[in-house]
Design brief:
heterodimer, A: 178 residues, Rossmann fold, two-stranded antiparallel ribbon, 21% strand, B: 244 residues, alpha+beta, Ubiquitin-like (UB roll), Alpha-Beta Plaits, 3-stranded antiparallel β-sheet, 7 helices, 26% helix, 16% strand
């Protein structure tokens, strides 16, 4: 039976997912072994139950990310922090030098041609939390895949281990920040 | 100076008693991780990464500032030491802003290398994300306090080798920081000779050259041994007598 695999995109740049696509011809091999049940690649709106493992890209930076992280944890057997933003905060956490108000004003008022609306004006849009933070500060994470972005070889190692039912332990060439 | 016999990780060595345990270990091919130590500078035992266990001693001792006595039995790689070394790297990571991906010395950083050496998977402590400043007032160099690990190599090289003593340390605990002269901007420092030694010895991306971009700067931290050896051996006098 194929393993049910998900990937998620929280407060990140999608670079980790781009690196996932760098698996190239290995993606064909992977397609025979897994069922991709939720992913930015697959455009499936809701996060399904009973997922075998989920790779989570990005830091936790708004209230929607927190909610999603808890759903992922509840419905996945293994959760893997996917890339430096999920592991350390990394580039997403550079905004922590400023208050959420300063960041929103800079992005949506000062640098925008439409100078009157921000996400804070819409109650159904995600709201920034005070600081962007790593995933494991919110939910239990089972393994950490480092790098900005992780290389295709690192990702392949992680997936190969998980397909064998083992949690990947990253050492030597597969342990690499930045 | 006397010769003593000591045991490191189960192997007996004879060593001079005026050489630190770190030096003796290094001479015998035993790797003890270090961060604040640099060949050519005095040792201060600031980073605590070189802590070792000595049988019969009730506390852990930094190898760089501990000297051997006859019959000493030393362990450098116990589980307890590995746990502490990892914790030190975690604390350094959580109390600065070390975004490796956007750092000038990415892949040429001693803190990064140590994280790999201790097998750091993630940091268990909450990140502080402190709001630290960047001093870019010097015409050639930048001091980025976000990436400073307070090893004090810059303070020591400026005082001991260059003789300018531009750098020093202010405040205590979490507020501790490196300052230039009387806590003024680096660019306004009257004592700085712009020699750049502090930039070359800095283990992280805290002291960098202007105009370098991400992962571009590779520091030549071992240049110091040439200067210091030349001074200790008064090599310029030898060279002059050669000419005669």
């Amino acid at each position: 039976m194929k393993l049910k695999v998900a990937t998620a995109w929280l407060g990140g740049c999608s670079g980790c997912h781009m690196s996932f696509l760098d698996l190239d011809e290995r993606l064909i091999e992977l397609a025979d072994k897994i069922e991709l049940v939720h992913s930015p690649f697959a455009d499936i709106k809701s996060f399904p139950e009973n997922v075998d493992f989920t790779l989570v890209e990005g830091a936790i930076t708004n209230n929607e990310n927190i909610e999603m992280a808890h759903i992922i944890r509840k419905r996945s057997k293994f959760v893997i922090s996917f890339g430096d933003c999920a592991v350390t905060g990394n580039v997403t956490a550079l905004r922590n030098f400023f208050s959420p108000e300063e960041v929103i004003t800079r992005s949506y008022i000062e640098l925008s041609s439409n100078k009157n609306k921000t996400p804070n004006d819409y109650s159904n849009l995600a709201q920034l939390i005070p600081t962007a933070r790593p995933l494991h500060e919110f939910i239990k994470v089972d393994a950490f895949l480092h790098g900005c972005p992780p290389t295709a070889d690192q990702i392949w190692f992680a997936i190969s281990e998980l397909l064998e039912g083992r949690l990947p332990e990253f050492q030597n060439i597969f342990l690499r920040y930045g | 100076m006397a010769i003593v016999t000591l045991t490191i990780d189960g192997i007996q060595f004879s060593a001079k008693d005026d050489e630190s345990i770190l030096e003796i270990a290094k001479q015998n091919g035993i790797r003890i991780p270090t961060l604040c130590h640099l060949d050519g500078l005095s040792d201060v035992g600031a980073c605590r990464l070189c802590l070792v266990e000595i049988e019969g001693w009730n506390k852990l001792m930094p190898a760089c500032t501990t000297f051997p006595i006859e019959g000493m039995v030393i362990h450098t790689q116990t589980e307890k030491l590995k746990k502490y070394r990892r914790m030190i790297i975690e604390l350094l990571a959580s109390e600065g802003n070390h975004q490796c991906a956007v750092c000038v010395v990415n892949n040429h950083c001693e803190l990064q290398d140590l994280a790999y050496e201790v097998g750091l998977q993630y940091v268990r402590f909450p990140y502080l994300y402190p709001k630290k400043h960047v001093d870019a007032t010097h015409p050639k160099f930048i001091m980025d306090h976000n990436k400073c690990v307070l090893c004090t190599r810059c303070v020591r090289v400026c005082h001991e080798v260059e003789g300018a003593h531009t750098w020093d340390i202010a405040n205590r605990g979490i507020n501790c920081e490196i300052i230039s002269d009387l806590n003024q901007s680096w660019g306004s420092s009257p004592s700085c000779t712009s020699c750049g030694k502090c930039v070359l010895v800095c283990p992280t991306g805290a002291l960098i050259e202007k105009g370098e971009t991400i992962a571009e700067m590779e520091k030549k931290r071992d240049f110091l041994k040439y200067i210091v050896t030349a001074r200790q051996k008064r090599e310029w006098i030898l060279n002059m007598s050669d000419e005669e």
